[in-house]
Amino acid sequence: MSSDDGVKPEHLSEHFGDATIDLVNDVLTEGADKAVLLMRHSARTFDRSINDLENPLTEHGRNLCVKLGQKLPKHLKIKGYTSPPERCVETAEKTIAAHAEKGGASGRTRPVEALGIFYSLDHQRMWKMLSGSNGLADFVGRWFDKAFPTDALLSPELAVETLMRVLEAKLDALDPSHLDLCVTHDMTIFMMRHGMGLESCYGPDVEFLDGLVLFEKDGKKLFRSHHGGEVEVREALARLL
């Protein structure tokens, strides 16, 4: 760890990703035979001298990806979709490579714009509003409260509905015993948790490798957080929209 990367001791936890493994195992144990995992990237640097999206994974973050991939259920074939920044691509690639090295089947990884910060209509203004907020949870809460100009940010309801439509299409296209790993950012996880009614954005923080899982059970599509929240997708979207 270099002295100027801004990494704090709490970002060196060995437990990042454990709750996500438990989440995937739980839905499979309950009878789901395929799933889409929307997950934050692994531990990264916090170098303020560069554009935030250019901050790469730390070596610790890469090791966490290997640990995660080794623990994912080996009967699953996993392919990756990611936000375009390199730390998201590398998170998926290293996780899936570790899964394959332990005997799991794997597919390719590719960037998808819908997993990025697609809801930002004016990046400069969005980062300014974020820097003026009391943390990311406060920013997302204010966004849902309509505190920001509509020419700077897409409406949060439309952003949630758009991304869920993408995730649902991926789930529908999966064969049994397949998992799509969709790597994104903490802002997107906050947005989806709050907008879909899993937990308030002012609830638990979004740690590295935290995820939300979309799966089908008894003919219904369900969206679940490892914190205990679960919603039926169609009902949650009806409340949101």
Task: Characterize the structure shown.
The chain contains eight helices and seven strands. Strand 5 and strand 6 (220-225) form a beta hairpin. Strands 3-2-4-1-5-6-7 form a seven-stranded mixed β-sheet, sandwiched between helices. It is globular and about 50 Å long. The longest helix is centred in the C-terminal third of the chain and has 18 residues, at 156-173. With 241 residues, the protein is an alpha/beta fold.
Main features:
single chain; 241 residues; alpha/beta; seven-stranded mixed β-sheet; 8 helices; 7 strands; globular
Topology, please?
Layout (H helix, E strand, L loop, with lengths): L17 H12 L4 E7 L18 H13 L5 E6 L3 H16 L3 E7 L11 H9 L4 H9 L11 H18 L4 E7 L1 H10 L15 E7 L2 E6 L4 E3 H8 L1
Parallel strand pairs: 1-4, 2-3, 2-4
Antiparallel strand pairs: 1-5, 5-6, 6-7
Helix pairs in contact: 2-3, 5-7
At a glance:
This protein is of the alpha/beta class and 241 residues long.
What is the radius of gyration?
17 Å
Nearest-integer average pLDDT: 94
Tell me the number of strands. Answer: 7
Low-confidence stretches: none
Instruction: Give the overall silhouette.
Output: globular
Within the largest sheet, what's the order of strands?
3-2-4-1-5-6-7
Give the helix tally: 8
Q: N-to-C terminal Cα separation, in Å?
A: 45 Å
* Backbone structural class: alpha/beta
